[in-house]
Amino acid sequence: MNNFLPPGLVSNLQQALANRRPGEDDAVSSKADDDSALPSSSEGEDSSKPVIFVTNSDGIESPGLSFLVDALVEEGAYNVNVIAPQSDKSTSGHSVSLKETIEVASVDVKGATAYEISGTPVDCVSLALSGALFSWTKPLLVISGINKGSSFGHHMYYSSVVAGAREALVYGVPSISISLNWQKDESQESDFKDAVTVCLPIIKAAMRDIEKGVFPKGFSLDLELPTSPSANKGVKVTKRSHWRSNLNWQAISSTRAQAAARFNGAQPAMGLNIAQLSRDASAAGAARRLTTQKKDIEVVESVGVSPKAHFKRTVKYFRAEMLNKDNKEDGNDLDFRAVENGFVSLTPSYASVDSEANAAALNWITSAVLEGQ
Fold first, then answer.
1. Are 175 and 141 in contact (CB under 8 A)?
2. Which residues pair with 299 in a beta bridge?
C-alpha cells in the first residue's frame, strides 16, 4: 500500500470492503466492462438521413414503443435513435435524476440504435440532446410515446410522456407526445399498431416541413388517440381541458409492502454501490474514533435535568391509485371530450405564450394535417 492516502482512510476502506457481500466486486467490475463495450451511436447509420429520436414512459419493452419504432425503421427515411426507461415511469412527471448515477445499457432493436436507462423519460431526452451519448445533439424531431393511457388536461402535470416532449421543447427541438386512451378489459395490444397507423402521417408531415424550414418554431404537439384508433372520426384541434383524475390513497399492511419491495427491488447501480461504500467507510471511521474518545471521557449524570422521553418511531405504508373522475366541463373542442367522441385530439403546447406562435401553429396544423381528411 502506498503512502499517498492517510492511514485512517486506508483502514476505513479496508474495513468497508471486508464487510461487503461476496460477489459485489465482480458485479461492479462486470458493469464497468459492459459500459466500455457500449457500441458507437453512429455504427450502421446513414449520415445523409435525418435523425429522429424516440422515447416513452412505459418502458423499453412496451408495445407502444416497439410498434412505433418498427414503423419508423420500416419507412427507411430516418436514422432512428431510442432511449427509454428500463421500467414503467408513466407518472414521474418532469422529474430529473440529479446527483444520481444513471445506468445506460445498449438494447437490440432491429434497424435502430437503442438504449435503456435507469432514469426517467426526461432523463432520456436530456441525455440524448446533451451530446454525451450520441454523436448528434439536435435531431429533427423528438417523439415521446406511445403511452398506455391518456394525458388529458391536468394529467399532463403527472404525465412523463408529455414531459419528455416538453423537455425537447426546452432544448428548442420540435416534439410530439402520443398517448392512447387505453381502457382495461377493452383495449388490446394490437390497438398500438393501429395507433401508429393513425400517427404516422402526422409524424411524416412534421418531418417534411421541419426539413423544409416551414415548421413553426417553439411548439410541441400532444396527440391523444381514442380507445379504438382504427375507428377514429378524424383529427380535431383541441384546447387543454381541466380534466383530472383523483389520487386515491389506501393503507396497506407492512407484510404486503415488504413483499412488494422485494419483488420490485433491483440491485443498486454502480454509482450507488460506490456511494454506499463511502458511507460504510465513514461510519467505520466514526465508530472507531468514538470508541477511542470514550476511553478518555468521564461520564457525569445530571441530577437536575429529567431524562428525555424515549420517542417510539411508527411506520405506516400507503399506496396511491388514480381513479377517473366524472368531468362536467363543456366544449367539444376540449381534449378529453374530442377523444370521448371518437376523434384524435391534437393540442399544441408552446415554449412561451405568444399569439403569433399560436397562430403559426394552428395554421400549420390546418394546412399539413387537417386538409384532405
1. yes
2. none
Residues linked to residue 225 through DSSP beta bridges, in sequence order: 180
Q: Are 174 and 227 in contact (CB under 8 A)?
A: no
Q: Residue 238 contacts by C-beta under 8 Å, 6 or more apart in sequence?
A: 224, 333, 334, 335, 337, 338, 345, 346, 347
147-162 tens-digit pLDDT = 999 888 887 888 899 9
pLDDT surpasses 60 at 25: no
Contact 322, 247 (CB under 8 A): yes
DSSP-assigned beta bridge partners for residue 239? 334
Whether the pTM exceeds 0.85: the reply is: no
Residues paired with residue 117 on neighbouring β-strands, in sequence order = 85, 104
CA distance 244 to 155: 6
Smallest CA-to-CA distance from 169 within 130, 215, 203, 219 is with: 219
Give percent helix, percent strand, percent coil of the chain, each to the nearest 5: 40, 20, 40
| Cα 104 from Cα 82, distance rounded (Å) | 12
**Under a CB-based contact definition with an 8 Å cutoff, are residues 107 and 40 in contact?**
no
- Determine the Cα–Cα distance for residues 185 and 105; give it in Å rounded to an integer: 34
Between these two residues, 133 and 93, which has the higher pLDDT value? Answer: 133
Digit-coded pLDDT (tens) for 306-335: 556 778 888 999 988 877 766 777 888 899
Which residue type sits at 322? M
- Whole-angstrom Cα distance, residue 220 to residue 166? 7
| Mean pLDDT score of the chain | 80
The one-letter amino acid at 29 = S
Q: b/e per residue, 139-162, with b = 16+ CB within 10 A?
A: bbbbbbbbbbbbbbbebbebbbbb
Count CB-CB contacts under 10 A for residue 269. 16
97-107 pLDDT tens trace: 998 999 999 99
At 115-147, the pLDDT tens digits run: 999 999 999 999 999 999 999 989 999 999 999
Report whether 368 contacts 358 (CB < 8 A): no
d(CA 169, CA 156): 15
Give which of 226, 244, 228 is closest to 346, Cα–Cα: 226
Decide: 83 and 114 in contact? Cβ < 8 Å: yes
